[in-house]
Design brief:
Chain lengths: ~90, ~90
C-alpha cells in the first residue's frame, strides 16, 4: 500500500486497517508460540515415537505446553522488570 | 505517509512494531532459558526452575551489556589508533 492510497483512506478505513494489523500481529505471535511449543514439547515428551500417541505422552505434552506458557510469561515479566530498572538508572 | 492525517497511523505502526520487537525478543529468550532450565515438565513450575528462569534472563542481559561495553571500548581504541587497525 503506497502513501497516496493511505492518504485517501477515510478514518473508518484507517481504524479497520489498525484492527487488521493488530489481528495479524496476534496471529503471528500465536504461530510462533505454536511452532516453539511443538518443537520443545516433542523433544521433551516423545523420546521414542511409538505406533500411537499414548496417554502418558499426551499428558506430558499438555503439561509441557502449560509450563512453556508459564515460562514465557515469567521471562516476559523478568525482562520488563529489568528494562524498567535499567532505564531508571540512566 | 507524509500528510498530517497519517500521523496517528504512523504512530500506531511505530508502536506496534516496537511491541512486536519486544515479543520476538521474549520468544527467543524464553527458548534459550527453557533449554537451560527446564527438566521434565510437571504440574507446576517449581521454585528452582522459576529462579533459574529469572536468573537466566538477568544473566543474559548482563552478558549483553558487558559485551556491548567491551565492544564500544574496542571500537574507540581502534578509532584512536588508526595505524594499528586490526581486529586482534
Amino acid at each position: 500500500m503506497d502513501a497516496e492510497t493511505l492518504g485517501k483512506m477515510s478514518s473508518s478505513q484507517k481504524d479497520e486497517l489498525m484492527r487488521t494489523v493488530q489481528a495479524q500481529v496476534a496471529l503471528a505471535n500465536m504461530q510462533e508460540l505454536l511452532s516453539k511449543v511443538t518443537d520443545k514439547c516433542f523433544k521433551k515428551c516423545i523420546s521414542s515415537p511409538g505406533t500411537s500417541l499414548g496417554s502418558s505422552d499426551q499428558k506430558c505434552i499438555a503439561m509441557c505446553m502449560d509450563r512453556y506458557m508459564d515460562s514465557f510469561n515469567l521471562v516476559s515479566k523478568a525482562y520488563s522488570e529489568r528494562l524498567r530498572q535499567e532505564s531508571g538508572r540512566l | 505517509m507524509n500528510r498530517g492525517g497519517d500521523a496517528a497511523l504512523q504512530q500506531f505502526i511505530a508502536a506496534e512494531t516496537e511491541k512486536q520487537k519486544f515479543q520476538n525478543i521474549i520468544h527467543e529468550l524464553n527458548e534459550k532459558c527453557w533449554d537451560t532450565c527446564m527438566d521434565k515438565p510437571s504440574n507446576k513450575l517449581d521454585s528452582r526452575t522459576e529462579s533459574c528462569l529469572k536468573n537466566c534472563v538477568s544473566r543474559f542481559l548482563d552478558a549483553n551489556i558487558l559485551i556491548t561495553e567491551r565492544l564500544e571500548k574496542k571500537a574507540t581504541e581502534m578509532l584512536n589508533n588508526h595505524d594499528s587497525m586490526s581486529l586482534e
